[in-house]
Specification:
This protein has 191 residues and is of the alpha+beta class. Helices cover 18% and strands 21% of the residues. It folds into 2 domains: 34 residues, no CATH class; 124 residues, no CATH class. It has 3 helices and 9 strands. The chain has a 7-stranded mixed sheet with strand order 3-9-8-7-6-5-4, covered by helices on one side. Strands 1-2 form a two-stranded antiparallel ribbon.
């Protein structure tokens, strides 16, 4: 198949030397009005968050879940929220952590802003419902809840290429993750 090189008016598309069957299939897709992005507000859930489209979910309108620091290392906070915290409350907490990390106000949440400022190059916030599984990433012996990851959500701030990049995700059981925003987009307060 040859590369598309000539402009077709009206659609900003081009075609030269493409087989009739390929051109017909393409034309049917264009004429049928296929959507270029998912429905707004619908979660994008996938086993591998690097696949598929990246979208920013709207912020939840509920208060963030209260939390306690279960464990802290030089690169990680493990936070525990109430066992009955909803996904929206966990999601609100992730957004609150994101805003505080960028505004340099984590101390107001009783988390070390200095640790985040001195990150080498990342800092992770793992959020668990209840404390039963919260030690699974660092405790000796077999994991308390089995071999898979049991967090309710994660927030990661920093990166190897960009110290200001961040990522937030909610987990719905094993290998089912909903990314809250596009980590490649620059943070804008309140968005």
């Amino acid at each position: 198949m040859k590369i598309l090189t000539t402009r077709i008016s009206g659609h900003g598309l081009s075609c030269q030397g493409v087989s009739f069957a390929v051109w017909t299939a393409f034309a049917l897709l264009v004429l049928s009005g296929c959507k270029s992005r998912p429905d707004a507000g619908r979660p994008i859930a996938r086993a591998n968050p690097d696949l598929g489209q990246k979208a920013t979910r709207p912020r939840p309108r509920v208060a963030p879940a209260s939390f306690k620091v279960f464990h802290k290392s030089d690169t990680t906070y493990t936070l525990v929220v109430p066992q009955d915290a909803t996904d929206e409350q966990v999601e609100s907490l992730i957004w609150e952590l994101r805003d505080a990390a960028h505004a340099r106000t984590l101390d107001k949440l009783k988390l070390s802003q200095k640790m985040v400022d001195e990150r080498k190059p990342l800092v992770w916030f793992h959020i668990y419902r209840g404390s039963k599984c919260a030690s699974e990433k660092y405790a000796d012996g077999p994991p308390p809840c089995g071999g898979s990851y049991h967090a309710a959500g994660d927030y990661t701030y920093g990166g190897y290429r960009n110290r200001e990049t961040d990522n937030g995700s909610i987990f719905h059981g094993e290998d089912h993750e909903t990314q809250l925003w596009d980590p490649e987009k620059v943070y804008v307060k309140g968005s």
